Amino acid sequence: MKKFKNLLLIGCALAFVSCVDLDLTPHNKISSGSMWTSPELALRGMNGLYDEFYCRDLDNPQLGRQKSGMNRQGIEGLGFNTNYNVTSGPVTLLTRSTKSAGDFQLRREWQFCYTIIHSCNDALANLHEAGLDEATYERYVCEARFLRAWCYHRLNMLYQGVPVYLEPVTNEECTKGQSSAEDVWGYVLDDLKYCIENQHYPDNTLKNNYGRPSKGAAYALRGMVYMWKKMYQEAANDFKKVKDCGYGLFDGEYAEIFKIENEKSKEMIFTVQFDVKSDYSDNIQRLVGARDNYESWTQFLPNPDFVNYYCNADGSKFEWAEVEGLEDWDKLTPEQREVFFCRDGLNTVQKPKWKDEVIKRVGKDVFDKYYLDRGNEERITGAFVNRDPRLKQTIVTPYEPVNCYKPNYNDDKTQIGKQLRWPVIKQGTDGGDLWLNDRKSAFYLYRKYNAFEKGELIDRDHCGTDWPLIRFTDVQLQYAEALNELDDLDGAISLVNEVRDRAHMLPLTNGGTGSCAVSGKDDMRERIRYEHRVEFPLEAINFFSEIRWGTYKESKFQGGTECGTKSWWGSIIQLRGYYEEYMWPWSAPLNEIQRNPNLSRRDGWAY
Fold first, then answer.
1. CA distances for 401 relative to 383, 390, 420, 541, angstroms
2. pLDDT over threshold 60, residue 27
3. Does residue 112 sit in helix, strand or coil?
4. Which among 224, 309, 375, 480 counts the fewest CB atoms within 10 Å?
5. Torsion angle, CA of 195/201/207/209, rounded to 10 degrees?
6. β-bridge mates for residue 419, sequence order
């Protein structure tokens, strides 16, 4: 079995000590006191440290109802790449104009990280009782300290200062106030230093103890901490060591990185592992798929601003007005641009209401001037050719035929050649309209992590592809970022070109002419950010990058104060979001402040 053979629910492995309301059914079959009394029990206890990463309610994944597992939905929905399109449980940190300290995400991130932290502290305090040989004992200690460091790193990115507990404590003893962000970074660095300097900690776990953190993972995470601290030389030194530990860029196509057959590649440094046979599944299909893709909910929609952000194949910036036939793009309002995206044949469609409804929205003069009854589809598809190849490897674009499978439909066979069309008229089977869950307007669909063919999955809630928490491309691009800040432009370009080469993009050059010529440090900084944004959609890390760069308003809100779920043509359809300067760093959760009066409040947040 490819996963941890003895992985148990952490509740069955040990009794938690926690500073949060875990809201979990207690399982005290093995108490903390007896957990660490033999090598077998210690292994079970160490396996249990990972349980909080797993959602145990896969058929109810909506934000705000999630009581276990990592907060993939909320963090991805906050990022630039994706709109989390759920009206019954939206990303309220965006959709509420006043940001509440009682928000679900503030509570969930705090709960998630501290559950793991206190479990790690319990292990560290008791592992010496297990009768382990020195090598195993030290490896376990490093593993627990890495996980603790990873959690404090995540908390510090969000809250910029949290209480620090390094020993087991009871709920009643959780009375500390927030340490400063700088002090929290210091504790993270201490744990990672211990891991890196420990002779028993393996360089990588690509062959043995696959998926567990390693010395390479510790170097990667420490480098990322240094990037937050703007200690670029130290970051560069650590990022260089990650490759020395045996990790590297995946050798194949970008889209193939995220296939189950490649999940153990050298690209994957630290992952959440899934295995349907072991009943540890992911439900990413439910989030990204369409109704025509395993009856999924299409909760993660590609942000049209992100789709527009993909550059041309020659490296130049994509502009709608430069597409043949769309020269008047900038003369129209976002709402009027719908006319360019409509399907062919509206003048002759059997039910004229489809045409009439478009005319009501765009105006008859605009419709008559710009709509092509034969050629409208071909014209708009021209906007998606000769672009960065990662665009079509990541996103299904309008009028692009794809196969898809919906259980118990079409005689339970794969449907051939369905397309995203607008207006959506008829689902059909082969050649029909691709049926999203939400059809109020025209939305893009993710191809990444989305199963299209019969037999790829058991169902939408049983997905076995591992989810990377740290992968090498992130290390490579942050390494390039560090070198650029150190004025090593050639070194930064070389690292970025390795990523671009895999994507079949033209290499950047230091100076010269053309779209790939880098004009200096500031230009290179933006090019590195471009690569990072197009490499990591659906991996729930873009939000962290944007807040570290200070570009969150610029990207998610396009420099304004509102965002939302948008149509292909850019008009906000629903879930309008509102920007406030105080929305990062986050406040400590309201329920924690009510329990612990030593926690401070942040200005602007509603309590």
1. 16, 17, 8, 30
2. no
3. helix
4. 375
5. -80
6. 433
pTM, whole model, 2 decimals? 0.94
- Give the pLDDT confidence score for residue 278 in this predicted structure: 86
**CA distances, 564 to each of 91, 99, 176, 389 (Å):** 10, 16, 38, 26
Over the range 185-203, which residues count as b (16 or more CB within 10 Å of their CB) and which as e?
A: bebbbebbebbbebeebbb
Q: Would you give the DSSP letter of residue 173?
A: G
From CA 328, how far away is CA 201, in angstroms rounded?
61
What is the per-residue burial (b if ≥16 Cβ within 10 Å, else e) of 26-51? eeeebebeebbeeeebbbbbbbbbbb
> How confident is the model over 455-501, as pLDDT tens digits?
999 999 999 999 999 999 999 999 999 999 999 999 999 999 999 99
> What is the percent of the chain where pLDDT is above 70?
95
- What is the rounded CA–CA span in Å between residue 607 and residue 591? 10
User: Average pLDDT of 390-405?
Assistant: 98
Question: What sign does the CA torsion over 433, 437, 442, 447 have?
Answer: negative
Is the peptide bond prior to 213 cis by the omega test (within 30 degrees of 0)? no
Q: Which two tokens mark 413? A: 């066979």
Report the distance separating Cα 399 and Cα 230, nearest Å.
45
Cβ contacts of residue 588 below 8 Å, gap of 6+?
A: 101, 106, 110, 159, 162, 178, 599, 600, 601, 602
Within 13 Å and on the Cβ side, how many CA atoms surround 458? 12
pLDDT tens per residue, range 113-124? 999 999 999 999
1-15, 241-255, 591-605: the lowest-pLDDT one: 1-15
33 confidence band (pLDDT: 50, 70, 90): low
Separation between Cα atoms, residue 176 and residue 167, nearest integer Å:
13
- pLDDT digit string (tens) for 43-83? 999 999 999 999 988 888 789 888 889 999 999 999 999 99
- Residue 453 in tokens: 């063919």
> How far is residue 578's CA from residue 599's CA, in Å, rounded to a whole number?
27
d(CA 486, CA 280): 43
Instruction: Locate 582 and state its tokens.
Output: 């105080």
Q: Are 448 and 393 in contact (CB under 8 A)?
A: yes
Q: What is the dihedral of CA 17, 23, 26, 32, to 10 degrees?
A: -10
Task: Determine the Cα–Cα distance for residues 479 and 488; give it in Å rounded to an integer.
Answer: 11
Residue with tokens 């069309």: 421
